Structures are given as structure tokens and as C-alpha cells.
């Protein structure tokens, strides 16, 4: 699925990336079908989620509070959120053709 997860990155790394100035997004527990039009980097402040690639009900990646995550462009997936999600996120700028 090519989701990259860095567990508990240092506060120095988070500051260098400017994570706390990124927009925030949150959601309640539940299942959400998502398509990532651009690569997303996010930092989970709260929560826990299992991400299933579209068409798979068994293969998943799990991450949660304290994780820095890179989600690849073009990923079609379902987020199965077990604990309320609160995250900072940023998308890479769109690439021109």
C-alpha cells in the first residue's frame, strides 16, 4: 500500500516540518471511503485508524496518535477509525503535466 509511518518523531523534526502550522482535520469513529488526489503528509495528535486499500478486507495498515504518516498520491482506501481522529495535514502541491 506504500503508506510510510514514522512512530513518535522527535519534536525537532516536527518543528522543522512546521507540522503545528498545518491545517487540522478531525473525524468521529466510523468507516470513510477516501481517494488521495495528492500525496498527503499528516501527524496524528489523537486517534487510531486502520487503512484498507480499496478492494481489500484483510490487508491493512494501522497508525495512531504520535505517528507521522505519508499517504501516496492516488491511493483509494477505506479508513476504519476506531478512536476519534485529530490530525495536522498538508498535501504536496499538484504536479503539472
UniProtKB/TrEMBL annotation:
Domain annotation (S)-ureidoglycine aminohydrolase cupin: ranges: 15-89
Gene3D superfamilies, sorted: Jelly Rolls
Pfam families the UniProt entry points to: Cupin_3
UniProt signal peptide: none
PANTHER family to which the protein is assigned, alphabetical: OS02G0620400 PROTEIN, OS04G0445200 PROTEIN
Name of the protein in its database record: (S)-ureidoglycine aminohydrolase cupin domain-containing protein
Origin species: Brassica carinata (Ethiopian mustard)
Amino acid at each position: 500500500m506504500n503508506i510510510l509511518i514514522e512512530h513518535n518523531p522527535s519534536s525537532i523534526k516536527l518543528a522543522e516540518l512546521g507540522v503545528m502550522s498545518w491545517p487540522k482535520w478531525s473525524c468521529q469513529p466510523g468507516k470513510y471511503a477516501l481517494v488521495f488526489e495528492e500525496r498527503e503528509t499528516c501527524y496524528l495528535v489523537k486517534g487510531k485508524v486502520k487503512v484498507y486499500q480499496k478492494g481489500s478486507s484483510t490487508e491493512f495498515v494501522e497508525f495512531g496518535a504520535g505517528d507521522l504518516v505519508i499517504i501516496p498520491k492516488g491511493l483509494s482506501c477505506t479508513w476504519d477509525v476506531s478512536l476519534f481522529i485529530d490530525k495536522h495535514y498538508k498535501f504536496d502541491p499538484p504536479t503539472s503535466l
